[in-house]
Amino acid sequence: MRVAALSDIHGNLPALEAALQDVTRAKPDLIVMCGDVASGPLPVETLNLLKTLPNARFLHGNADRELVAAYDDSAKQRGAGTAANWCAAQLSGAHRDFLASFPGEVRLEVEGLGRLLFCHGSPRSDEEIMTTATPEARLRELIAGSDADVIVCGHTHMQFDRALDGARVVNPGSVGMPYGEPGAHWALFGPEIDFRCTNYDGEKAAARITMSSWPGAADFARYNVLSTPSVDEAMDFMRSHGGP
Ligand SMILES: [Mn+2]
Q1: Neighbours of ion ligand 1 (CB under 5 A)
Q2: In what order do the strands lie in the sheet with 30-33?
Q3: 159 and 34 in contact (C-beta within 8 Å)?
Q4: Do the beta carbons of residue 158 and residue 171 sit within 8 Å?
Q5: How many CB atoms lie under 10 A from the CB of residue 35?
Q6: Residue 168 near residue 138 (C-beta atoms within 8 A)
Q7: Of 49, 65, 87, 89, whose CB neighbour count within 10 A is largest?
Q8: What is the mean pLDDT of residues 2-11?
Q9: What ranges make up the beta strands (E) of 50-202?
Q10: For the chain, which domains are there?
């Protein structure tokens, strides 16, 4: 069994389309989406594409959970004009139910790698941060009891592969909002772990993204598609926000 892991698409449809073309060529048995699929400039188009994938498994990220909450809040005519509420206002009930159906984790057995646990933040939370800079004692606490050989997480938008106590903690990076190299980042599992970066036409993608009326569309195109924050910038940001 080979599994492609894609995380943190964040409504970047052009990036997802490019990544999926590459994924199809790699012929995995399954695709696991590690959360934060829709919150971003093209939520409806992204969800519509994801719903057509026959071999995809999903789990929820914090942004997916918040989007469902924003949808449910606006249905009760509450909530302010945040980015999440803009996204929520685009969704149908079927989109909402699709997002709400995502579990917190996916577990698979992959030859050559053992027992894989896919999650968003940490095995116990879709908000906790695991990076290359997370101190070992903290990382040990975050993965305690996960009962897996490889823990595949998302959330921090940075590819890495860390060893700890005989286990591996791996992040496939972000399809739609990567730190480091521009492109759609993802990874293949089985029998090795193979990190990928799919290049796509940034100008064309930026033009499509800025057509969106999402309040952050222009900034998203500028800072996440035409350019990307460096890993050092991202680490500084996380440090100043209580992580890693
Ligand atoms: Mn995210």
Answers
A1: 8, 36
A2: 56-58, 30-33, 3-6, 184-189, 193-198
A3: no
A4: yes
A5: 27
A6: no
A7: 87
A8: 98
A9: 56-58, 106-110, 114-118, 150-152, 159-164, 167-172, 184-189, 193-198
A10: 3-111+173-240 (3.60.21.10)
The answer to whether 229 touches 178, Cβ cutoff 8 Å, is no
What's the maximum distance between 2 C-alpha atoms anywhere in the chain?
51
pLDDT (tens digit, 9 = 90+) per residue, 125-141? Answer: 999 999 999 999 999 99
How does pLDDT run across 186-225, given as a tens digit for each residue? 999 999 999 999 999 999 999 999 999 998 999 999 999 9
> Residue 162, Cβ neighbours under 10 Å: how many?
16
Distance from residue 215's CA to the centre of ligand 1 (Å): 17
Q: Cα(101) to centroid of ligand 1, in Å?
A: 18
Q: How far is the CA of 213 from the centre of ligand 1 (A)?
A: 20
Report the alpha-carbon angle 224-225-229, nearest 5. 35
Distance CA 194, CA 37 (A): 22
How far apart are the C-alpha atoms of 225 and 175, rounded to whole Å? 11
> In angstroms, what is the span from residue 173 Cα to ligand 1's centroid?
10
State the distance from the centre of ligand 1 to the C-alpha of 64, rounded, in angstroms. Answer: 9
Dist. CA 235 → ligand 1 center (Å) = 15
